[in-house]
Amino acid sequence: MYDFSKIEKKWQTYWKEHQTFKTDVWDFSKPKFYVLDMFPYPSGVGLHAGHVEGYTATDIVSRMKRMQGYNVLHPMGYDSFGLPAEQYAVQTGNHPSQFTEKNIAYFSEQLNTLGFDYDWSKMVATSDPKFYKWTQWIFKNLYQDGYAKYVDMPVNWCEALGTVLSNDEVVDGKSERGGYPVVRKNMKQLCIDQPAFAEKLLEGLEEIDWPESTKEMQRNWIGKSIGAHVTFKIAGHEKEFTVFTTRCDTLFGATYCVLAPEHAYVDEITTEEHKKEVEAYKQACASKSDLERTELNKDKTGVFTGAYAINPVNEEKIPIYISDYVLASYGTGAIMAVPAHDDRDYEFAKKFGIPIIQVLEEVTGTPHENETKKESIVAVVYNPKTKKYLTINWHEKGGRLFIGGTRKENEDALSCAIREIQEETGYKNVECIAELPKIEHHYYAYNKDKYFGIESTGFFFHLKDEEQVEKQLDEDEVFDVEWVDEKKVEEIQDELHQKTYQYAKNPGAMTKDGTHIHSKFLNGMNKQEAIDAMVKWLEEHHCGSRKVNYKFREWIFARQRYWGEPVPIVHLEDGTDYVLEDAELPLVLPELADYKGHHGKAPLENATEWKQYTTKDGRSGTRETSTMPGSAGSSWYYFRYIDPENEKIFCDPKLAEHWLPVDLYMGGPEHAVGHLMYSRIWNRYLYDKGLSPVKEPFKKLVHQGMILGENGIKMGKRYPEYAIDPKDIAKEYGADTLRLYEMFMGPIEASKPWSASGVEGAKKFIDRVFRFFTNLENLTEENDGTLTKIYHQTVKKVTEDFESLGFNTAISQMMIFVNECYKVGKCPKEYAEKFIQMMSCITPHIGEEIWELYGHKETIAYEPWPVYDEKYLVEDEKEIAVQVNGKVRATILVKEEDTDQEIEAKAMEEANVKRHIEGKQIVKVIVIKGRICNIVVKE
RNA sequence: GCUCAUAUGGCGGAAUUGGUAGACGCGAUUGACUCAAAAUCAAUUUUUCGAAAGAAAGUUCCGGUUCGACUCCGGAUAUGAGCACCA
Questions:
Q1: Is the predicted pLDDT of residue A749 greater than 80, yes or no?
Q2: Cα A880 to Cα A412: distance, rounded to the nearest angstrom
Q3: Strand, helix or coil at A435?
Q4: Taking each helix axis from N to C terminus, what angle separates A675-688 and A212-222, rounded to the nearest 10 degrees?
Q5: How many CA atoms does the CB half-sphere of A456 hold within 13 Å?
Q6: Is A793's CB less than 7 Å from nucleic acid strand B?
Q7: Residues A344, A347, A348: CA angle, nearest 5 degrees
Q8: CA-CA to A102 of 20 to 30 Å: which in A461, A479, A735, A884?
Q9: Phi and psi (nearest 5°) for A844?
Q10: What is the ipTM of this complex?
Q11: Which amino acid residue lies closest to nucleotide B5, measuring CA to C1'?
Q12: How many CA atoms lie within 13 A of A518 on its CB side?
């Protein structure tokens, strides 16, 4: 046992007094390494177990890199704007900075008790005017370059509160607080133009070492889709409207159009007799929250406007509806609907009785050049009473099939199907439930020795009654009529019949690829050919073009809050906007008597004097009273750590050039699209402007997983009784134990449950290390070589695992080394010192303590990192497995220089191997050098 | 619904390019030390059969590729995360 509280305090004081971890950013003589943690919001609760995990991981890497001779920058700071401080201010009337400063001090104190190697001289806090001056400065540039602007956007507007609400502040179309009605309304919002960066952000993802899942999430969020714009004329109107579609190839199947209820043309095109209905529907939609509009999407709603659009490819008049399944905010807020090939349109068309025209049919079988064309049917007949399907069994002559047949001249498909059912099975009373999508089918008929290419129409029938008439069969039609259950139906081999059955079971749109039909110049083409051909046609006829669309929308960049960066914009009386000059920054938050925003208005509206502004040339106006969102400061803070005191620029370009990008960025996966997207946008903007040296700010990103309660349940507000407070653990077991335990729990990215006995185990290991390595009698001056191999293995494994953040396996290797030391009973001092050095990355306090005990006067933090020598790792004799038919039967020792034949011979010697090959024929023997010997035998 | 990730002993988790599944830790069992307990040290610990040698099964389930599959391929199930009428 050792007195961790004394030791830990001692070394924390030492590091502070000696400024051990202060980084000279201007020292370019060594290679740089920039390790960054996502900075925390300084909450009054302090650190949680998840913080400790991420921070320890980066701490270990930064310590190793420092020992490897890098100039390491490992800073820490605070994302200190936020709601708790504001609430405190509202309640107490005190300025939120008091509260914030107190929490920062508390948080920093906690971080220090865990022994992290932060360079506190680089600390930043986003709520510090010295910092937010530059947040405002970058924003100002975004604004002047047109990337930040006021945009008309639909928002949740609450008249009673006089404010805009976010989606989660709206419940059932009413405001969460007060229950006042909320409507969707277009309003001017301060936004950052994210879509302008979409393409660059997508490209940037290719070059960075991030978790694939996070990149994928960002791609989905950006939501690029390649399609086309198609312009429709409106019958009897001058106006045209444009739709966005990814499937312009299906234009011949467009049987109606839909505008979003908020679409600008709705009022204009609605005919007199539909006005009332349309107005009512618009009202209903406006009062629905986004959530309701999407969550209740099972049932499509909408109303007809009375107007018709003209399909440009065939001049057909098709009705224009409005429906909330079309979003005003995506594409053009209008669509062409192709019910045959889109699930949503299909649903809508079914409900409103709109025609469904199939223009693409699935292809089965392989086409042949000399095939005979014909039209045919497949009828799936189901008896709801017995739950069985009607099939005919040709036995060995063709297996089981549904009813099929060829259409006669001038016979429509449905009549043909009914006739065939009667002729082949005798059943005469069937009810057609659905006509199924047509299928193009190619096959070879043995009995006729001919290739056929058919267009088959499927039908789904219910049997009404059992009444039968006499069958009318040709001579060669020899089969049994059988009613079978679902299981037997799935045994049907024929592709056409099986496909038809699938359509019958899952009615809906055909969204797969296929061959175009009923589409004039597209007929016979597949999906991609047809899209290309259609775009060409649209462009030639000036009614459409290729177009890329993004889900990515404007980033609303204003909040009705006090505790955020003031926006450096003034709204002048003449209606124009004025941006503050650089010299006027920072625009500091005024002290207020009352920090509450009344009637939902921004709290800064209370600053009557501060609000007033007069330009040098005497124009007066009022300041923007919204503040920036929380993610503003965090979008660029990693620049400021490099050069935190600079008063001329946000970061000296020479320093940025040297230190960026961040080499390792660690933080929770919850920021996968928020913060990590915003930071990339701001950096990309700065890069394009020549103010950032890199296209992407974070070269390598790792997410630490969540630490769950002992029962595997998420810690937090819902189950506070399971929460683990790192403070308590550090107090009871010491910071070194806490750090070691969290690193040993499992892979850093995985979510893993806390285990109290696991902490005990970590403590036990530290005690074991301490006991052995502080007993100087265990250390020998000379090295007899017993531990040489295991030592070099350990150095290799630990170095590689630290590099790849595999801390659990690195620790496991260190445990193996210590176990070995105990077994041997002594350890050469040179190995002991290097081992302690590796340990010191994880457990820095006992690392320094033992280092000092060994007679060193300086910190261990800058000692050169141990190196391993491959020559001690190669084994002259190695145990490999001998398998017989893939099952291990023995192990043998082989030498490096043994030939395959020698190994094989040695393997055959083994008694257990002999037993298993006895009396059997050896087919072959596989020898893989240094790995395995497999003998394949057969009876 | 869509996208992504994950699935290995009683538990947390190991396992290069496919090559002895279960490293390391926890827990459990046994032994040593002790008057005793704790701590410590040593040993055993995937399951089943067996005194042992050994055998059989085994990485969520089903199927495939291979001399050989936790690893690769196809399909299913479960859990977690994100998105959610994106035309």
A1: yes
A2: 74
A3: strand
A4: 70
A5: 30
A6: no
A7: 85
A8: A735
A9: -65, -30
A10: 0.94
A11: A213
A12: 14
- Confidence at A727, pLDDT banded by 50, 70, 90: confident
Query: What value, to the nearest 5°, has the Cα angle with vertex A195 and ends A189 and A201?
Result: 135
d(CA A244, CA A550): 11
B51 C1' to A24 CA distance, Å: 71
- Among the ranges given (A147-161, A339-353, A618-632, A817-831), the one the predictor scored with the smallest mean pLDDT: A147-161
- Residue A227's SS3 state is strand
Mark residues 57-86 of chain A whose C-beta is closer than 7 A to nucleic acid strand B. none
pTM: 0.91
Question: Over the stretch A378-403, which tens digit does the pLDDT of each residue have?
Answer: 999 999 999 899 999 988 877 889 99
CB A387 under 7 Å to nucleic chain B: no
Q: Which of A742, A763, A765 is nearest to A4 (CA)?
A: A763
Is residue A130's beta carbon less than 7 angstroms from any atom in nucleic acid strand B?
Answer: no
Give CA–CA dist A505/A292, Å, rounded: 30
Question: Distance from residue A257 (CA) to nucleotide B27 (C1'), in Å?
Answer: 66
Q: Give the residue from A445, A372, A461 showing the smallest Cα distance to A413.
A: A461
> What percentage of residues in chain A have a pLDDT greater than 70?
96
In the complex, which nucleotide's C1' lies nearest to the CA atom of residue A326?
Answer: B85
Please tell me the predicted confidence (pLDDT) of residue A785.
87
Question: How many angstroms is C1' of B5 away from CA of A236?
Answer: 54
A936 touches strand B (CB under 7 A): yes
Strand B contacts in A 816-835 (CB under 7 A): 816, 819, 822-823
CA of A68 and C1' of B18: distance in angstroms?
A: 35
The pLDDT, as a whole number, for residue A805 is 94
pLDDT digits (tens, 9 = 90+) for A218-263: 999 999 999 999 999 999 999 999 999 999 999 999 999 999 998 9
**Nucleic strand B under 7 Å from the C-beta of A775:** no
Q: Residue A686: what residue type? A: L
Q: Provide the CA A91 to C1' B61 distance, Å, integer.
A: 58
CB neighbour list of residue A545: distance below 8 Å, 6 or more residues apart: A228, A229, A535, A538, A539
Structure tokens at A510: 């055909």
Give the per-residue SS3 of A727-747. HHHHHHHCHHHHHHHHHHCCC
- Burial per residue of A477-494, b for 16 or more beta-carbon CB atoms within 10 angstroms, e otherwise: eebeeebbeeeebeebeb
CA of A734 to C1' of B12 (A): 21
Higher pLDDT, A106 or A908: A106
Give chain A residues 242-281 with Cβ within 7 A of strand B: 243-247, 260
CA pair distance A360, A522, nearest whole angstrom: 10
Give every CB contact of residue A692 below 8 A, 6+ residues apart in sequence. A639, A656, A660, A683, A684, A686
Find the nucleotide nearest A818 (Cα to C1′). Answer: B24
Cβ(A799)–Cβ(A868) below 8 Å:
yes
Mean pLDDT of chain A: 90
The residue with tokens 């991420």 is: A54
CA dihedral A689, A695, A699, A705 (to 10 degrees): 80
Q: Would the Cβ of A925 be found within 7 angstroms of any atom in strand B?
A: no
Using CA atoms, how far residue A889 sits from A311, A922, A936, in Å, is 75, 15, 12
Beta bridge partners of A187: A153
Q: Is the CB of A885 under 7 A from strand B?
A: yes
Integer-rounded Cα radius of gyration of chain A:
37
Strand partners, A361: A515
Q: How far is the CA of A708 from the C1' of B80 (A)?
A: 13
Distance A756 CA to B11 C1' (A): 12
CA dist., res. A567 & res. A628, Å (int): 6
A748 nearest nt, CA–C1': B13
Q: What are phi and psi of A383, to 5 degrees?
A: -105, 105
Task: Say how far A906 CA is from B54 C1', in Å.
Answer: 21
Q: Is A443 helix (H, G, I), strand (E, B) or coil?
A: strand
